[in-house]
Amino acid sequence: MVANDPDVLSMTPEELEKWMAEIGEPRFRGRQLFEWLWQHGAPSYEDITVWHKSLRTSMASRVPLKRLTAEKVQLAQDGTTKLLLRLHDGNRVETVLLPHPYGYSVCVSSQVGCNMGCHFCASGILGKKRNLSAGEMLDQVRYANQILGKRGQKVSRVDLMGIGEPLDNYDAMVKFLHLLHHPLSFQLSYRHVTVSTSGLVPAIYRLADEEMPVTLAVSLHAPTDPLRLRLMPVNKAYPLSQLIGACRYYGETTGRRVTFEYLMLDGINDSLDNARELVDLVHDFSCHVNLIPWNPVAEHPFKPSPMARVRQFQQLVQDRGISCTIRKELGQEIDAACGQLRRREEEIVR
Hints:
It is found in: Cytoplasm. One of its GO terms (biological process) is tRNA methylation. It is an enzyme of class 2 (transferase). S-adenosyl-L-methionine binds at residues 164-165, 196, 219-221, 295. The chain is α/β, with parallel strands linked by helices. It folds into 2 domains: 8-62, DNA polymerase, domain 1 (Orthogonal Bundle), CATH 1.10.150; 69-349, Alpha-Beta Barrel (TIM Barrel). Helix 4 (134-149) crosses helix 5 (170-181). The strands form 2 sheets. A 10-stranded mixed beta sheet has the order 1-2-3-4-7-8-9-10-11-12. Strands 5-6 form a two-stranded antiparallel ribbon. It has helices at 13-22, 28-38, 53-62, 134-149, 170-181, 201-208, 225-231, 234-237, 240-254, 272-282, 307-319, 340-349; strands at residues 69-75, 81-86, 92-100, 103-107, 111-112, 130-131, 155-160, 193-197, 215-219, 258-264, 287-293, 323-326. Helices cover 36% and strands 19% of the residues.
């Protein structure tokens, strides 16, 4: 492999056509490559049957495909499937397939680890090692489709809610969204994509202006600055006044309703006073609140809120005219919380 050869999994058809011409192949080979990588999900060059044998062999020698491989698969009774995927450099990420009445969503990781340091999350315990490329994010969707194809299904929605902070890997994330939407790949509507963030305010404004109407899901988890700072260090850089302003701009610019994710922690952020504070914070623009039962993480001291209290919280928010749901718990008998499976395997290796 030549050092300057490109990451073909992260390239558009146009970029692949240009590169093919540069190495002496017909330009149309680039479009063929893109289509076979994603529409056909070819695991290797050998599977691109529209190419002659010599081209498949020379490409494999020149630019090996850095496909993800499954190191561990956990299957829950409800159909939830958690994958521990190995990257070409030996790092690992998690990808989760979630069953819904409309089909399957796939929860995609954007980084190896995370630097946000949220005090309730397993993903950041080991810190961030590196960003994922656009191709590594897209390959998670391909692998999910490979598994779902055996069930007569395919990915219906993509949620950038796995390991990592997507907006901290902004350029690769945006390219991933373009590739995911491309008619020669998965042709997934932007409206069937959710991007989650802990609240990187400048990047929220940038994303609003990208003309990609994805759903923005903001990890809020607290209705006041002191409480949110206790849970999420990012609040020191971007307090709630700035975050809510960015969310309002996102909704007005894209026409999309913003979702606020709210983790329910027993005795921490789940009182009816907290619910009233939340209503006061978000009542004046179109939004949805998603209450999330907490999946315990051994290193963090929190407990999940009793379901009766969660329902009381929900009722108060709804009574004030704000859409509010409780996230259905899926995959409870496997390593359900984001980052748990990867962290456990990393600790074993250590």
